[in-house]
Amino acid sequence: MFYVYVLQSLKDGQFYTGYTDDLKRRVAEHDGGLNISTRPRRPFELIYYEACHNEKDALAREKYLKSGMGKRYIKNRLKFFWGVPR
After folding, report:
1. How many helices (H) and strands (E) does the chain have?
2. How do strand 44-52 and strand 15-20 relate by DSSP bridges?
3. 60-71 average pLDDT score
4. Where are the domains positioned within the chain?
5. How many alpha carbons lie under 13 Å from residue 67 in its C-beta half-sphere?
6. Of 6, 13, 60, 83, which sees the most CB atoms within 10 A?
7. End-to-end CA distance of the chain
8. Own/partner long-range contacts of 57-61 (Cβ < 8 Å, ≥24 apart)
9. H helices of 1-86, where?
10. Three-state DSSP class for 49?
11. 2-77, what's its fold?
């Protein structure tokens, strides 16, 4: 299985979207500062994920969620989420 995920920075409230085949490991890498692009925005909270049967589907879904329509989808999907204010 492959997972598309959305993290929210507890520091600045911004979202980060990615995909992986090991969700727990990948979230730990983000929180541990092992990803250069997200290191300054730590810590993170996993706020959303989806499972896909293959990598191509996960990559396509990640690309969509990073688009303007995809960002709107996430915000509508999580409209009652009580995370860090945006």
Report:
1. 3, 3
2. unpaired
3. 97
4. 2-77
5. 8
6. 6
7. 31
8. 57/2, 58/2, 58/3, 58/4, 58/19, 59/19, 61/4, 61/19
9. 23-31, 55-66, 68-77
10. strand
11. GIY-YIG endonuclease (3.40.1440)
Sequence-distant (6+) residues with CB within 8 A of 44 are 7, 8, 9, 10, 16, 27, 30, 31, 38
Q: How confident is the model at residue 86 (pLDDT cuts 50, 70, 90)?
A: low
Task: Report pLDDT digits (tens) over 11-42.
Answer: 998 999 999 999 999 999 999 999 998 999 99
Contact 49, 15 (CB under 8 A): no
pTM of the entire predicted model: 0.91
